[in-house]
Structures are given as C-alpha cells and as structure tokens.
Design brief:
93 residues; alpha+beta; 17% helix; globular
Length: 93
C-alpha cells in the first residue's frame, strides 16, 4: 500500500496538507478496509486493503501520515516480520 501511494505525495513545502497519505477505515457491507489516499495536485493514488480480523482499527476521521513516516514504516516492513500500526489523538505508533 505504501509503494502504491508514496510516489504521488507532493514535495512542495507550501502545500503541506498534501505532504502525506490520508489513512482511513472504510466499512462496506460489514467488511472493513484500510484505505490509503495521496495526491500531488496532478496525480491521485488510492489503494484499499481488506482488514482480516483487525476490525479494531479505530480511525473515525482518518489521519495523514507524512512522507517521512511512511518511509520509515516501509524500511521496517522491508526488514521482515509484521508491522503493527496504532493511532492516538495526534500520533501514529
């Protein structure tokens, strides 16, 4: 999901709101999906992934994860093992 959205994150400093990926939980017919969306003003990337048994992801309004945060998450995921993501009121853990 990171690979499919990180390339379309803007690099312009003046458009900081577009400087990350918007992450939200989507529920469709009692099936939970995690959605990553990003744009640079010209390109739009959107990818959904089914949450298998992880319906506990509690993102009511969605969150924006910065390019740097996604890069670090990708490094950890590439090293192997499972990657777990949690959200507080103003942070991703």
């Amino acid at each position: 999901m990171i690979d499919k959205t990180i390339y379309s994150i803007t690099t312009e400093e003046t458009r900081y709101i577009l400087g990350g990926v918007f992450v939200e939980r989507i529920t469709n017919q009692n099936i939970n999906f995690l959605r990553f969306t990003s744009t640079d003003g010209h390109r739009l990337s959107l990818v959904d992934s089914k949450l298998d048994g992880l319906g506990g992801v509690d993102i009511e309004k969605g969150v924006i994860i910065s390019r740097k945060g996604l890069s670090e998450m990708k490094k950890m995921a590439d090293e192997g093992g499972n990657l777990k993501l949690a959200f507080t009121s103003n942070s991703a853990i």
